[in-house]
């Protein structure tokens, strides 16, 4: 798949960044991780933005930065987990390129997130049990947005990112 923009979406811990970076390298296309782009443009971490402006403030910045990134052509983009679920972002993303939902069960997401070292503001100050319930509940709310992506790859049983990357690259 070599369209002008490949846009990866899915819940935190689904592998968007790892897969996107590897895919971009293979396809020789620049890679943009939306969170990293926000951090470099704002000169603040996502956590600092959440602390200073709350989630609502972060979502406004996220939408604005998304529109900036989407100006670029021939790119691979990994969105933040919430990006498609606010404003009209999902429709906008579908207009901008080939959107791919990396779908995963709450159990596997929970496993990935408990192994990861990245600070995720939405999961801070929660016990592992609370995180599990939170993921399950949030996925139900977000699934209708994610499922509007043009392509879905079920990554639940894919035990390494290489396999996921190959599946995404094969999409037509
Ligand atoms: C969020 C996911 C994060 C980041 C922010 C909010 C979410 O990105 O944008 O912490 O609402 O799911 P990742 O999915 O890359 O962790």
From the structure above, extract its key features.
cytoplasm; Shikimate kinase; 172 residues; shikimate kinase activity; 5-stranded parallel sheet; ATP-binding; kinase; alpha/beta; Rossmann fold; binds shikimate-3-phosphate
Secondary structure elements and pairings:
Layout: E1 5-9, H1 16-27, E2 31-33, H2 34-42, H3 46-69, E3 75-78, H4 89-96, E4 98-103, H5 106-115, H6 128-146, E5 151-154, H7 161-170
Parallel strand pairs: 1-3, 1-4, 2-3, 4-5
Helix pairs in contact: 1-7, 2-3, 5-6
What does this protein structure show overall?
By secondary structure, the chain is an alpha/beta fold. It has a single domain, classed as P-loop containing nucleotide triphosphate hydrolases (Rossmann fold), CATH 3.40.50. It is built from 7 helices and 5 strands. A 5-stranded parallel β-sheet has the order 2-3-1-4-5, sandwiched between helices. The longest helix has 24 residues, at 46-69. The model has no long low-confidence stretch (mean pLDDT 93). Shikimate-3-phosphate binds at residues 12, 16-17, 35, 46, 80-82, 120-122. It is an enzyme of class 2 (transferase).
């Amino acid at each position: 798949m070599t369209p002008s923009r490949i846009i990866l979406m899915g819940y935190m811990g689904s592998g968007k960044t790892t897969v996107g970076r590897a895919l971009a390298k293979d396809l020789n296309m620049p890679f943009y991780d939306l969170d990293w782009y926000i951090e470099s443009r704002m000169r603040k971490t996502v956590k600092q933005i959440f602390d200073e402006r709350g989630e609502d403030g972060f979502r406004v910045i996220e939408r604005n930065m998304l529109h900036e990134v989407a100006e670029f052509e021939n790119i691979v983009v990994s969105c933040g987990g919430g990006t498609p679920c606010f404003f009209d972002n999902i429709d906008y993303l579908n207009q901008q390129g080939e959107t791919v939902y990396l779908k995963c069960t709450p159990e596997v997401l929970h496993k990935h997130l408990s192994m990861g070292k990245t600070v995720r503001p939405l999961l801070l100050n929660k016990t592992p049990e609370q995180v599990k319930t939170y993921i399950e509940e949030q996925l139900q709310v977000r699934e209708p947005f994610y499922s509007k992506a043009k392509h879905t790859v079920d990554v639940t049983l894919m035990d390494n990112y290489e396999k996921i990357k190959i599946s995404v690259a094969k999409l037509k």
